[in-house]
Amino acid sequence: MFDFLKKIFKGDESKKIDSKPFKKTSKPKTEPKKPAVTKSKTLIKEPNKKTKPKNEEAQLKPAKKTETKPSADQDDTPKKDEKLSFSEKIKQGLKKTRDAISGNLSALSFTKNIDQEFYDELEMTLIAADVGYAATQQIISELKDRVKKEKLEDGAQLKSLLKKILSELLQHIEKPLIHIETTPFVILVVGVNGAGKTTTIGKLTKLLLDEGKSVLIAAGDTFRAAAKEQLQVWGDRNNVTVISQDTGDPSAVIFDAMQSAKAKAIDIVIADTAGRLPTQKHLIDELAKIKKVIKKFDETAPHETILVLDANTGQNAINQIKVFNEAVSLTGLIMTKLDGTAKGGIVAAIAKEQPIPLRFIGVGEKIDDLKIFSAEDYAEGMLE
């Protein structure tokens, strides 16, 4: 009898024990809440630091990591930019191009003797960075000649010589923008869609203001939706006037801007135009019409016609220069988005094939990241 009762009690106990796990999973209010509560407490306590965690583990998950990282990102970035010199900023902007070249170049320098195989691999490295065939052949030809003259035998000695040769090639397009003493000095900005004309105009405005010039912007892109609104944002940011019209002819907008600048004795007018592809002949021809209208106001204007190029387009930039130069006689170039591509060698290709002065380069997204082009700094940035 007692044995029978024991079996009954044992059976009940096993049922109780077996039911516990089911009770835990079936009650969302008890078990699942605990991890959720500890997580939320940790997230709240980390920024505040005032409430004490209930256990040491929560205290060790520290507010230091989640708190200091955001503040470091916010504080260090501007500090770094403030400390960077001009040449250091160029190097930073050309990091992707330099990484693409330097990896192969370092391998060549330290593992190869100076032989034909060395030159063949160097040729492939330069072409891969969009230096272009013609520029690459010139660089390697000069390198071979100087290696013989200086009797170099070790690949490790070539890096400084290669920088010098590249710098000499780039000097053909190192011609800073010079302001003629004419009021207003008119800069006509052209380029394809998406090259970064609007942003470049905003940055160029800031750069000219820093030089003590007064600037007025003409919103001559009357085709793209929100183009004038985007320029107005840059105008407000730089505290300069933007002349625009709701609809109308881009030539008329630019003409009005020139009249306004003349009346207010503004030093410089930067005139935006709609983006157009080199294949759109009717739109390319329209640029010539815009120039004619500008000349009716001032026969010497525009005093600078700048083509904005996106570095990501690589060798396609050569064709863009040819087409726009035929249409409007370019006087300068601005290369944008160099910080986002490994194709920075395209500047060497331009120097060899289409040597139009490269006035400025864009090496970052910030308003101060439009820099005057320097051949020496650019070569150093590519091959450091």
From TrEMBL:
Cellular compartments annotated: Cell membrane; Cytoplasm
Name the UniProt record assigns to this protein: Signal recognition particle receptor FtsY
Catalyzed reactions: GTP + H2O = GDP + phosphate + H(+)
GO-annotated cellular components: cytoplasm; plasma membrane
GO BP annotation list: SRP-dependent cotranslational protein targeting to membrane
Stored PROSITE patterns: SRP54
Keywords annotated in UniProt: Cell membrane, Cytoplasm, GTP-binding, Hydrolase, Membrane, Nucleotide-binding, Receptor
SUPFAM superfamilies: Domain of the SRP/SRP receptor G-proteins, P-loop containing nucleoside triphosphate hydrolases
Homology family: Belongs to the GTP-binding SRP family. FtsY subfamily.
Annotated ranges, domain SRP54-type proteins GTP-binding: 357-370
Molecular function per GO: GTP binding; GTPase activity; signal recognition particle binding
Quaternary state and interactors: Part of the signal recognition particle protein translocation system, which is composed of SRP and FtsY. SRP is a ribonucleoprotein composed of Ffh and a 4.5S RNA molecule.
Family matches, as CDD domains: FtsY
Signal peptide location: none
Biased composition (Basic and acidic residues): 43-86
InterPro entries: AAA+_ATPase, P-loop_NTPase, Signal_recog_particl_SRP54_hlx, SR_rcpt_FtsY, SRP/SRP_N, SRP54_GTPase_dom, SRP54_N_sf
Record-listed E.C. numbers: 3.6.5.4
Tagged with keyword Coiled coil: no
Region annotated Disordered, chain positions: 16-86
Job of this protein: Involved in targeting and insertion of nascent membrane proteins into the cytoplasmic membrane. Acts as a receptor for the complex formed by the signal recognition particle (SRP) and the ribosome-nascent chain (RNC). Interaction with SRP-RNC leads to the transfer of the RNC complex to the Sec translocase for insertion into the membrane, the hydrolysis of GTP by both Ffh and FtsY, and the dissociation of the SRP-FtsY complex into the individual components.
Pfam families from the UniProt entry: SRP54, SRP54_N
Source species taxonomy: Bacteria, Pseudomonadati, Pseudomonadota, Betaproteobacteria, Nitrosomonadales
Residues reported in the UniProt entry to bind GTP: 191-198, 272-276, 336-339
Name of the gene this protein is made from: ftsY
